[in-house]
Write a structure and sequence with these properties.
CATH superfamily: Winged helix-like DNA-binding domain superfamily/Winged helix DNA-binding domain
Number of helices: 5
Order of helices and strands: HHEHHEEH
Helix content: 55-70%
Radius of gyration: 16 Å
Strand content: 5-15%
CATH topology: Arc Repressor Mutant, subunit A
Distance between the termini: 35 Å
Length: 108
């Protein structure tokens, strides 16, 4: 999938995918993202579970079979999801490169 077909990821989706490089359940994802971003990004349950459903449908993440506690479904990123993250990082790097080139590295 080419980056132009994928489109830009929303910040919550990007952080959810990053969180799922290790298996994690919903509440763990919310905590991880909040901690990683110093509370700048907080995921509400509706946003998180809607995104998880969509990401599973796209094949970017998958639910793990865990017999420990059926109420706590764990998710993990797939190879397809990892490719999407790498494409997004390339897109963001291009934005930074262009921005720094144009403004000459000046801080605002």
């Amino acid at each position: 999938m080419a980056p132009e077909e994928q489109g830009a990821l929303t910040e919550p989706v990007f952080y959810i995918l990053l969180a799922l490089y290790q298996p994690m359940h919903g509440y763990g994802i919310m905590q991880y993202v909040q901690e990683l971003t110093n509370s700048r990004v907080t995921l509400g349950p509706g946003t998180l579970y809607g995104a998880l459903y969509t990401l599973v449908e796209k094949g970017w993440i998958r639910a793990l079979d865990t017999a420990r506690d059926s109420r706590r479904k764990e998710y993990v990123i797939t190879a397809k999801g990892q490719k999407v993250v790498l494409q997004e990082l390339e897109r963001l790097q291009e934005l930074l490169t262009h921005g720094r080139t144009i403004i000459g590295g000046k801080r605002l």
